[in-house]
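Internal tracking record. Fields below are filled automatically when a chain is submitted to the structure queue. Please do not edit lines marked as system-generated. If the sequence contains nonstandard residues, flag them in the REMARKS field before resubmitting.
Queue: standard
Priority: normal
Entity type: single polypeptide chain
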Amino acid sequence: MIARTLGPRLLALARRFPAVTVTGPRQSGKTTLCRAAFPDKPYVSLEAPDVRRYAIEDPRGFLGDHRDGAILDEVQRAPEILAYLQPMLDERRGFGRFILTGSANLSLLQSVSQSLAGRTALLTLLPLGLEEIRRSSHPLDDFFAVLWRGGYPAIFDRGLDPGDWFPSYVGTYVERDVRQILNVGDLLAFQGFLRLCAGRSAQLLNLSALGADAGVTHPTARAWLSVLETSFVAFRLPPFHANVTTRLVKTPKLHFYDSGLLCALLGIRSPDHLREHPLRGAVFETWVVSEVLKARVHRGLPPALSFFRDRKGAEVDLILEADRDLVAVETKSARTVVSDFFAGFDALAGAARSGRRTPALRRVLVYGGDRREERTGATVLPWSMIDRFDWAAGRPGRGR
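SYSTEM-GENERATED OUTPUT FOLLOWS
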């Protein structure tokens, strides 16, 4: 098992809350992490039909069998039990009695917020980040192999070929999770929609155009996108706003949580194929955004991420708000740095100055090369050192 960055945070919160809820995409390693962190707790999977039926039909009896606590896996499959869990937690004080996991973000969080508000801590476990992959035996010397492989633990733990694993994952996801979350009648149309979304990763999200290309209405496209967000496949990165007078775009960007899944949906068959692919830059941008996101949520921090783009097209791919200041991140998959890569930073600085407060602006260029540089006003960070930057605090970290 690869040691997960979220592990210490999970253990710490279990010492302060009666329950801890861990959400994240299917196959991100939630069960493995929780069972390793709490080896003495009984493990119960609500995926099993007989167990789920018992929990739904006799929730008091089911929870009575585990009064001392347990790991309840895929709890969104029987959300009714959360209302019965609440009085159990109130009647018998204690910390870390129940560890809950679930793969459906929105539906699970709604159930948790209604039944266990104040009684459970919430954490998110995403696929492996680069710092976690370093702890495995897989080499990190090939830039395109890292992006193409992605971060799902099964690929590393079992040495699976991403070209074999991802089609099965997508098929299982579409057949099971999509049907559970939303009654999608035409699964083939939804699969087409999913691949169209992949082709728009790292782009401004235009739901009307996306729906038209997929042959569905705007409301259907919006509902289907919510499925991708609910099941931790894709997410919307909001545009940057800071009470500025400069005209900025108000449309979010679309990103995928995992670059390997993104490559699979784009039909990218190998690292060499990615190297020559026209969407190479978009895949790299999505990978960088997801790496920063993982570095924060795996430490229990809010994402606090956005992007900048003005009406003239000046853009910065990622903005991190840290201690009321800003970390601006530009991504370039090229191996050579040129002066044009820094143009967006100046536009952002000008926009930020037009607000009520002028925040400090730290500039970071993450690129496909291998040299780290401290240029005037900017840090040039090679892709392989993205985990050497302290994204929790928003400043250079170890390995400078």
